[in-house]
Amino acid sequence: MSLMSAIRESSYRELIEILIDVDDIPRILPEYDLGLMISNYESGPLVLAEYMAAGLPFVATEVGEIAVRAKSSDAGIFIQPGDVTALAHAIDSFVEMSAYERKKMSENAFHFARRHFDFTKSLDELTKFYYQILKA
Q1: pLDDT in tens, 43-65
Q2: Strand ranges inside the chain, DSSP E
Q3: CB–CB of 108/74 below 8 Å?
Q4: Computed over its alpha carbons, how large is the radius of gyration of the chain?
Q5: Could you tell me the end-to-end alpha-carbon distance of the chain, in angstroms, rounded to an integer?
Q6: CA–CA separation, 122 vs 92, rounded Å?
Q7: May I ask the CATH class of domain 3-135?
Q8: Dihedral (CA of 69, 49, 75, 19) sign
Q9: Which residues are within 8 A (CB) of 29 and not within 5 positions of it... i.e. 6 or more apart?
Q10: For residue range 85-117, what is the model confidence (pLDDT) as tens digits?
Q11: Is the separation of the CB atoms in 26 and 47 below 8 Å?
């Protein structure tokens, strides 16, 4: 069964929107309650950084460097690639969370992104690294 078929048959079908080729990600992400990143292979995936920067909790497969770094952040729910049952349970778990739990997850996502994906912080660290190399 395809993902689109599964969504059409789901009791959540009225709550799910599939976005493709969106240009203004930072503007629209705050409008959503949950982000999904379901993939078998990723190097980043940058979409997790985008979700977290917007304070958007997520369900994601545990693939890529960002997923490894964010696993302990309590900003989202991670599952193994290809585990459709775990995906369904993770979405159900999110839907059943209290408003406080969802808000806390959102705050965790936002703060994790600020600590780990802030460009100015990364630039400062890179500058310090270059000065250390030059001094050596």
Answers
A1: 888 889 999 999 999 999 999 98
A2: 35-37, 58-61, 76-79
A3: yes
A4: 17
A5: 59
A6: 36
A7: alpha beta
A8: negative
A9: 35, 50, 51, 54, 56
A10: 999 999 999 999 999 999 999 999 999 998 888
A11: no
34 with 109: CB under 8 angstroms? Answer: no
Residue 23 has a CB neighbour count (10 Å cut-off) of 6
| Residue type, position 69, single letter | R
Which residue is associated with the tokens 């980043």? 44
The span from the CA of 13 to the CA of 31, in Å, is 17
Provide the residue type at 94 as one letter.
F
Task: Give the domain ranges of the chain.
Answer: 3-135
Q: Is the pTM of this model over 0.90?
A: no
Taking each helix axis from N to C terminus, what angle separates 99-116 and 46-53, rounded to the nearest 10 degrees? 120
Cα separation, 10 vs 4, in Å, equals: 10
Residue type at 32 in one-letter notation? Y
